[in-house]
Amino acid sequence: MLKLSLTSLLWTLLIVATAAMATLLLDASGEDTQLRPASFNKAMERDLAFQARAAFLQKIYAPVEAQLKAGNPQSALLKLDEVGRNYPGEAHGFILRGEILRGMGVLDQAIANYVRALKLDGDYLEEAGPLSRRTEIRQLVDQGLSELTPRARSNPDNRSLATTIRELHYLQSRLAGGCE
Amino acid sequence: MNFRDRHLWIVILAGLSLGALGVLLSVWGNPQNSGICVSCFLENSAGALGLHDNPRMQYLRPELIGFVLGSMGCSALFREFRSRGGSAPLLRLFSGVFLMVGCAVFIGCPIKLFLRLTAGDLTAVAGVFGLVGGVWAGLKTMARGVQLTPAQAQKGSGLLIPGLFALLLVFLVTRPVFLLFSASGSATQHAPWLLALAAGLGLGALAQRSRLCVTGGVRDTLLLGHRSPLLYGLLAFVLSAVVFNLVTGRFNLALYGQPGAHLNHLWSFLGMALVGWLSVLIGGCPFRQLVKAGEGDADAGLVAVGMLIGAALVQSWGIAATAAGVPLYGKVAVLAGFIFVFGLSLVQREQVCG
Fold this sequence. Notes:
heterodimer; A: 180 residues; mainly alpha; B: 354 residues; 14 helices
């Protein structure tokens, strides 16, 4: 008898606790946000950080971009070195260096810089967004494969060329997508 | 093989569905060659729950929820739901962690291994050899007396993991504020959630009925040859994945430039060998563990929890391989996994003999 009543009691308590939890969740529209610290909204924090980073990069690399627009790639590289002294290892610097070097026809160095940038930050591969360089990277891969692959085949002992081809395959793989 | 056997046709149907949906989910939005990947999905889900901080790998994958709940629904419907457990719980928990290590170093679970291969990714060949080698080694150790203690009936404990995944379904629908969703990266690539959930539910139910398992298929083929029904399930999976990849224009036979693949073939081999070996010892590949957890197996449930922990760790500790290759910690973790397997085998063999 005692066991039966205990079972009934436990079932009752289980149902009451479940109903109370459901009521709390259904009734909690908005009220909880006043009690929650702002840092709890990680998604918003992350979006803010991303926007701030994009704006900051645009600001610090503005002199480089200005030189590029003016058609002075050498000066742009010098400006890039200046910025790089304050922010070494910044992915955006590698992207810009890659762009400049590609424009100057130094394909292997351009590829190496894009690879360094993508290993640091995959956001440059997004289809859209303030940092997206997907189209440029795809064009670089197409150009690299068509120009460098025949050269690598005819010079199998050229190690630096082999390294560049490996880097091209890395870019190709990242463009293809996958889970990473 | 008796082709009038109804179970055989259920296995084949399950294999065909796995191959078809594995490709179609990718067409519908999941990452390339990753329409179904238990390890990638667990990494995404661990990220969504805030268990790791890789902002590109955070999405609560509905397919995983579908696998467990589909299996639970089907087993309940056919009166096969049995709450059981108690077999070497901590060993299974750690096995789950190391399953994820092996998968992360290869970049994909055994299902994705075949999805990559059937899409023409030749880097997956090393993984196939590794998986078969690992299953073979696992069988050899089992034949020499290494086995985990048998499970026992355990009232209620088999409901905990289905309950957890039901809660994750509530999270997916209600999107509470603590859940994280990537704004960039592969986790932003996903099929519409209702479609993904439906595919997961269907596959979970079919896998429960058929007992479909990739490593189980390899194991049974090594043991029974062409008499193994799972062999035909595996062949159906591969065949349908090839056909769907060809039809949808996703077949690209090449070694280089493949999505989510690297060229460290030795580590691909070792990663999948670890997964194959462990899967034999604990009775199923990562997918099968989720399905078994859905049908009340608390031991498989602990493996699932271990896999979730492992999925978080491979991202947090820089273990997961990328297209750039396998990081140092990934290599160390795979070797640690083998040390675990050898130690486990030694301890469990002593218990059996002792």
